[in-house]
Amino acid sequence: MNRRKLLKQAAFGIGTGALAPWLFSKAMAQQAGQTNVPASLFQEIGKRGGTLTLPLGSTPQSWNYFAVIDNFAYTVLNNVFDRLMQLDPVTFELVGVLAESWTISRDARTTTVKLRSGVKWSDGTPFTADDVIFTFTEVASNTNLRANQAATLTVGGVPLRFEKVDDLTFRVVSNKPYGAVLQALTFSPIMPRHKLAQFKPREDPSGYSRVWATNTDPREIVGTGPFILQSYVPDQKVTLVRNPNSWRRDPQGNPLPYFDRLEYLIIRDPNIQVAQFLAGNLDQVPVSGAQFPDLKRQEVASGKIRVLRGSTIYTSPPHWGFNFDVPNPELRELFRNLTFRRAMQFAVNRKRIIEDVYNGLASLPGHGVAPGTFWYYDTRSYLGEWSLERAAGLLDSLGLRRGADGQRRLPSGRVLEFSFTYASDSLPFSAIAAILQNDLRQIGVKLNLQGIQQGTLLATATSGNFESILMAYGDQPDPQLRKDIWQPGGQLNYWHRSVWPERGSSEPKFDQMFPWEKNIWEIFRQAEQLGDQNERKRLYDRWQLLSAQNLPVIMIVKPDAVAAGHARLGNFYARDNRIIYTNFSMFEK
Amino acid sequence: MTTFILRRILVAVPTLLLISVLVFGVIQLQPGGFLENMLEDPRVSRETVENIRRQYLLDQPVWAQYLHWLGGIVRGDFGFSFLNSRPVSELIWERMGWTVFLAALTILATWVIAIPLGIYTALNRYGPTSTALNFVGYFGLATPDFLVALLLIYLVLISGGTTVGGLFSPQYIDAPWSWAKFQDMLGHLWIPLIVIGLDGTATIMRQMRANLLDVLNQDYIRTARAKGLAERVVLWKHAVRNAINPLISLAGLQLPTLISSTIIASIVLSLPTIGPFLYDSLLNKDQYVVMALLMLSAVLLMVGNLLADILLAWVDPRIRYE
User: pTM, whole model, 2 decimals?
Assistant: First the structure.
């Protein structure tokens, strides 16, 4: 079940990956003044006090981070616990959080991490390397816990070893070179050993999973993060207050967070979240491109809210995938035919999708890389203009003639029709599906829409239970982190499952691959082991070009990021086309 | 009467047993389960799932699981929520207070408003007020509650209000009870009351109206009037008391809707009731929670019916259970 195990990073927008070797001996840059968090978070120095109120889409299941898979619990707990390092919001480079600096040995097998000194847990106990060792060896790599991270903490079947050097230094040792080691360390928040080791996660995983349930005394749940839990009213509200021992400082050396309290109101319905936001009961609300014009009008009219837009790496560009292994032999042959996929690309009206579906808050997509970022190779000329005539011409050239009823016929005489699986509970996906169905009808292709729940989309795709599908994977700062998607044979390379490795083998079935797929596979293999950034970029450029030419999937558009916040929020702003804010750096103006 | 109640309780035991088998069977028959759902999450390995399956005794034969579950219920242990890693009874108990409060208040408001309106519309069949009330009644029946909720919230928003959803303003949710908190609750409560109660009010109003119209055409009403009784006595002592009987049986069926009827309204209005909890558990196939709530709903139905029968005997001297 290696495949399942490793699906993780990709689906959650994080990933394994050879860490670019320019990070050798990289010490955390201490920028602007005395701040120990990224200086770009601050537009101005904030003032202390007030309450930040945010929405939470459902009731958290537990406060035990590794015992539940629950994004709502994580949303709350990410204010309480810190990771070793995180990505800078502007540069997307790794910066230290609990880690202060790190070095990677020349053979890339040993990583030595120096921890920030003077950090205390919220109950006053000093934070040490023991907490890190406990978190990684007993909890994060414990396969008996539901939300374990064991897959990323294993190289070639051998778990990483964590060794304490001194109270503020530890080492990660692997048998084989593991370039992704720093990335792997960013996934797990560090847990307090002095509170949790007594529950023996290794010996009694089911008992451990029951501790820190939502009815636990909040004082037990100690963290190093900016906030700590104060109270929880089931189905209504989670209240956090400033961690008295918070180590974060702003550029003038003032302690962070600025807000005294952080409250999450549990509001399930997205419409009501927006209503509560407009009523002034919430400071921020997640918005989509579809809601943008409406909220922007409110911003202009009332001046009480601010709506920001920016480009981001992380939004998920939808793409149209065809199942190369669909049971129907005629469709299978068709889907594998590049001319057919090019015909389908001509039928994708990207301009209309950007204007009508995303209200202009999207742009032309890249092929696996977010446009405007370092790794991006401009493939826009390969996207082609929307042209139903050219699409029809290509279909004609394939011998798919129209019958008397206007429908095209397959060689066997059957009507050319196939299903299009999409998330019917997603507004943009439903709209895209309708536009495609309508345009294809005009050129005699029948698209049978099959709406499913967004939550089951990934499972449907990776199980191969579809003919064509509208999917979306988030982009990442480094193509290596998306290897599972784009390298043929990868866990998330769902459109060509017949090249997936046999169970227990790590080699994909090369004999089943198209020549261009073999090229892409080789590009990813080489780039993983290269140190020179420019050499890697040359390889990845070639991969993007191959994708644009051979259309493993048809990229639709790249959505922008949008965010809405109350006008009273300081340090909630857009800069360099990025939306910047954190709960600890925002303040009440 | 005591023997009747005792007999009913004794009959309830095998019925509940049968229901427990059905409930368990239905849960077993559904494709997939909580653990299978977990496999869809890419970070969960087959190994982890098998370990958890053993932890929760789900690797045992079905009959053993059933007996284990039933044995637990007898001891007052309704099993364990996979989703929340907590005992089911605790989780239900956490939400019981607000659920009962809201349901009781809605039922009370429904009856207090609907019965007089039913009587009024029956007596003034063709008056403009009755026509208007009937229109509201039809509107209430025909409009889904979530739509009413969104409509009301929209109206509050454009009139500059802030009480959109929930039972309290954010600052009062975890504050101790005070006069200000009570007032704040009253300010929020009317939306859920209308949303949850409108449908029931309309139903009962129309039922009451129809029953009363039936009764008013009966011979004994004519007789009563012929005897020269005051219209007030005719109406309240003879007509209404007879017309209300069928509604009492109806009331017995309302009890289990405590759990299920407010799912959508509670999700839309962010109310802390059992409804959304049941919804989450169903989606995630958190089987012990679902089974506990189904059993609870069955028990409530039986209790409701029993109460209705007792009430009926008390209201209507013609009914005897000996």
Answer: 0.80
